[in-house]
Amino acid sequence: MSTVFIALQTNEETRPIIEAILQDNPTAVVDEQPAMVKINAERELVVRRETIEEITGSEYDLQSLQVNLITMSGNLDQTDDEIRLFWKA
């Protein structure tokens, strides 16, 4: 199987985002490093604006994720509501 991943800086702003990603992708695997969190998933990983907003209790613009984004792997499909990383079958 092919693994997709997203790597974010470790800071207070990304903690709820990471929590939301893990909530929406229960089989994802977290690799925590001193200044980075890499989240790996088989074939597909979804980041949903709605889940982040539920956790933070405030509005969230998915474009602002790029401030803390280190890298990602996979094909990217992005809307105002979600970011989806995937590998085509």
UniProtKB/TrEMBL annotation:
InterPro entries: MOase_MmoB_DmpM, mOase_MmoB_DmpM_sf. Coiled coil: none annotated. Belongs to the TmoD/XamoD family. This is MmoB/DmpM family protein. It comes from Thauera sinica.
